[in-house]
Amino acid sequence: MLSNKSSLDSWEKFLLHETPIRRENYRVCCLIAMLFMPLGSCLELLLENTGWFVKFLPLRLGSAVLLWIIYLLLGRSQHPRTIKILGLLVAAPPIAAIAMMIHQLGGAGSSYYAGLNLVMVGAALLMRWTALESALVVATTMFAYMIACLGGSVDVVSGIFVSNLYFILVTGIIVVMGSWLYVRTRFSEFQLSQSLDAKHEELEHAVKQLEENNQKLRELDLAKNRFFANISHELRTPLTLLIAPVETLLNKGAAIVEAERQAMLSTMQANAMRLLKLINTLLELVRLDSQTIELNKAPVVIADFVNELSNACLALARDKHIKLSATAAADIPPLMADVEKLERVCLNLLFNALKFTPAGGTITFTASYDGSNIRLEVSDTGVGISADHLPHLFSRFWQADASSRRRFQGLGIGLALVKEIVDLHKGSISVDSALGKGTTFTILLPYERANSSQVESSEHEKSQEPKTEEWIVDLYRRAEFSPSSAEAQRRPERNIVPQHSLRRGTKGKPTLLIAEDEPDMMAYLAGQLSAEFEVIKADDGNEAITMANQYLPDIILSDLMMPYKNGMQVCRELRGHAATRSIPVVLLTARPDERSKIEALTAGATDFIGKPFSLTEVRVRLKNLAESHRFQRKLAEQKNQLQATLEQLKETESLLIQHEKLSALGRMSAGLIHEINNPLNFATQGIYWLKQMSDQLPDTLKKDFDETLEDIDVGVKRVVTIIADLRSFTRPNQDGFADFEVHTMVNTVLRFFSHHQKDGVRFLVNSPEGILIHGNHGHMTQVLVNLLQNSIDATAEKAYSDNEKPTIEIQVSQKLERVIISVKDNGAGMSGETQENVFDPFFTTKEVGKGLGLGLSICHRILADHQGLITINSKEGLGTEFILDLPEASSYRTSTQETTFV
Predict the structure, then answer these.
(1) Residue 622 and residue 883: Cα distance in Å, rounded?
(2) What is the mean pLDDT of the chain?
């Protein structure tokens, strides 16, 4: 029956699938019939029977019109039943028209019965009718033929009628059988297509399922890898704090003071309990996986249970400045449950709340009974959990932050173990949390009543003295009640670093920065290494980087896994700063594999020590690296001192060369001035005498004589002015600072370069009068001479186009209390590298023998002596601009007085 129903559904789907195809075929058949029905009139014309043509043409056109109407209706119809009816009606107009023509031609004797055969065969080939629909059309056709033969000239019982009817019947049977076979083939193809589509969908679903499973396996594999990495850290850290203190106790023996001995023993005991708790958790997980765990149920007084657990966590809550409160209704009846496992569940939730709740927060632990369930609730005001993480909260190995720089340590199995233990008690656990607001865990345990005899037996067992074989059980319980180091984490005491340890290059103890987030490990390392090092403490990656930049220690000892930034990130950031780049960094890690070592060394670590470690090895390695670093730092400081001395020597040499050049120029100029002054005096007297004699010349010569004499007088006066300027320039006075006008200085300098105008250099000067600066006139003139000479050399190096001309612009302006002098040219310009070094002594881009590279260095020194600045703007191929920024005369005196006063 199910098979029949499935086949029926497939047939209906097939018909729905075929409906749009059949509708298009019906419309095509309409068009074909509309074309050939009127064309049939050509037969009457070929037979030269005009009467038949006139008589049958209305029938042919009428059937074409009906077919056109059906064609239009099929174009608008969408319903399958309507399309089916219209498809059957497509055959009606041609059959009716041919039957009427047969009747008018005498019935059975007409050869037009062949038209009926054509209609059935054409329909069978194009219409996609089912066998039933084809049989209906065939029956209609035979009925129409028989009606058409009634009353004809040939008797219906004649051989011609029977023969024609036989051919129509045989054709109809062929049409029905052909339709049946065709539709069956189409239906089989459709079923096969549907089956293939279903298989394809199943295959896609299977592939998708495999991809999801594969992704889950990869995530699980990744989670397991993280778990084993974390478990390695969690195991090796307490092992280190067991082995290292034992080694210290064995090596030092009686030399250890009692307080230090007790501290080491306490550390060893706490980490032994931590290790035992971790091992018990892993064993519990294994038993849950193997389904060999059993519940040892006993009566539990809920009020006592809640108070005992809260009291166990109260000291830790006080240390973290967290308010812990516990409430349980006194009328809750005793519950049958596994006390040990229920304690593990509640302690896990309480320790998690203590871990994730900041100081000043609140934790509440409540128990209630609603008649059918015991409700245990642990609520905190901690950091909260995001909605995206809630679905994964009880998954094994899952952690919200699984990186090595996570703030809160853990294995990712605690809450998974909690849920599985609750499930063993046939209970449920739920969580409600919001980021920044806190988290609430709710446990519902179905109430299982403990009878009075079980309660009395339990109380009797508690009153008995503990048996010797129960010592191990008590040890396990004490380990379960001990918080892990991460849960009991505290901020280290404030660093108190002696001031002498901050002085680099000190001969005292080297400075050691320890970055460690485990308080016990930090206390042990700091205590044991304080004899050889001045110890600075940092409890996370961020603080380690801050302390390193602040104190610049001689060496850093850092854990690999730390909050905020792990040891590798610390290395990378320290290597990225010039001040801390050379500080050696030693990484402590519980991952001693080769890959971790390579990653650490690539990140910039100097050395790598795996846990558990030997304290003697750590001490020796740190000491050697610290001494090597101090030696390298001392060498670097001596190198810097030598470089500074060399630079000072270069500057002194440049000043000596400047002074010598000026002295030589002064001596030469003094001799030249003396030798030139006598001829100038003679020339001046001669010009005066010639002017007196000009009146004696005839008028025709006097005009030209006076003009020539005037030109000679102007030239001589210009020579006198240049000699005066040269005298003032070559007699600099280091202490002779005075106010002078910039305009006069610019004009003086331009006279030195006036001959360059004849060589095609254009000078554009904008130097307003009245702008004063305070300084040494000779030195400032030398600056301007050097800058103009550089500009002229730059224009000589460039090839100009026809419409361009070498140009030097001098702009003088006053802004607030500053005087700005700009010397700009359109010469060859400078590269960026040249601009960076242009003011260095002895730096030059000129050929050997054409300059010493001291000019701009001297300018820079002179501007500094005048409380001014010199800057440069240049682009290769476009030109260079030197900008002098000097204080105004009044501003300079005020500034000097204020400086002197201070």
Answers:
(1) 54
(2) 76
